Amino acid sequence: MWFGAGREAYARRSSPYNRAVPKIHPTAVLHGEIELADDVEIGPYCVLNGRIRLGAGCGLVAGVHLQGTLSAGAGNIFYPGCAIGFAPQDKGFPFHKDGAGTVIGDGNIFREQVTVHRATRDDRPTRIGDRNYFMACSHAAHDVQIGNDCVFANNTLFAGHAEVGDRVVTGGGAGVHQFVRIGRGAMLGGLCGASKDVCPFFTLSATNYIGGFNRIGMRRGGFSSAEIDLVREMYGIIVRSRLPFSQRVARLETLAGQPLADEFIAFVKGSKRGISTRHGRATGARGGSGAEGE
Fold it and tell me: How far apart are CA 71 and CA 158, in angstroms?
C-alpha cells in the first residue's frame, strides 16, 4: 500500500507519550471527531467525516470514504472505492441523521466498491462482526446484522434489516430480501435470491429453493458425525417431507433437547417471512403450494 509519512497537524494532536502516529497521506481529508489508533494507515484521496473510530492495524488503501457515526475494531482493511457508513437508501431518511450508525468488528476485509449503510434505528446500529470477507461490489444495507467468518462473493446484496449468521458463504450476485435471516453455516449459490429465511447449514441453489445442506462446511467446522447426521435428519423433515408445514415443525420438535435441534426449532418458529424449502424456483418454474410460508 502507498502511504505518506504522516500529517504533521495530526501528529501534534497525538499523545505526547506515544511517538507512533498514524500514517496519513497528504491528500486525505479528515473532518470531525476522528479517533485513530497509532498504527492506522490512510492512503491517497481517502475522506473521513463525522464521528469515526478506527482500531489498531486498520488500513485504507486509497479513495475510501467513511462517514460517521462509525466504529471499526482492529485489523480492518478497506480497498479503493469503499463507501462505509453513509445514509440508508430510504427516501424518508434525513441525510444528516446519524441514528445508531455503523459498528464493525475486527479483521474484516472490504474489497473494491463495497458499500455498507448506517442504521435507520436509534437503538441498534448496522453491525458487521469479525473476520468477514466482502468481495468487490458487495452491499450491506441499513440495519443489517452480520456475524463472523463469512465470505461474500462479488455483488452479493443484503437488503435492509437482513440478519446473517456466522460462517455463511455466498456465490457471486446472491441477493437477500429485507428482513430475511440466513442461518449460520448456510450457503447461497451464485445469482440465488432469498426472500424467505434459510435455515442453518442449508444450501440455497435457486431462488428460495434448498438443494441440500452444507456437509463439507460442517466437517471443516469441526462438527461430529452425529451432529451432521442430525442436520441431515432435520433437512429431510423440513425440506423433503410432503407433510403440511405445521406437521413438519411438530416432527422437528420431537428432536428437542439436542443443541443443534433446539437451534433449528427456535430458528423455524421465529421466522416471520417463511422458510425456504423445495418450493422455490429450481428451474425457473414455480413449484408446490407455498405452505412453508405459513
Answer: 20
Query: What are the extents of the domains in the chain?
Result: 1-148
**Grid coordinates belonging to 245:** 408445514
Residues listed for the chain: 294
Q: Which of these, 276, 251, 253, lies nearest to 266 by C-alpha position?
A: 253
> Of 55, 62, 20, which is closest to residue 36 (Cα–Cα)?
55
Q: CA separation (Å) from 71 to 9, 14, 35?
A: 23, 19, 9
pLDDT in tens, 91-110: 888 888 888 999 999 999 99
Task: Give SS3 for 283.
Answer: coil
pTM of the entire predicted model: 0.90
Q: Sign of the C-alpha dihedral, residues 226, 150, 101, 21? A: positive
pLDDT of residue 213: 98
What's the CATH fold of domain 1-148? UDP N-Acetylglucosamine Acyltransferase; domain 1 (2.160.10)
Higher local confidence (pLDDT), 14 or 269:
269
Using CA atoms, how far residue 243 sits from 49, 202, 237, 250, 253, in Å, is 55, 19, 9, 10, 15
Amino acid at 54: L
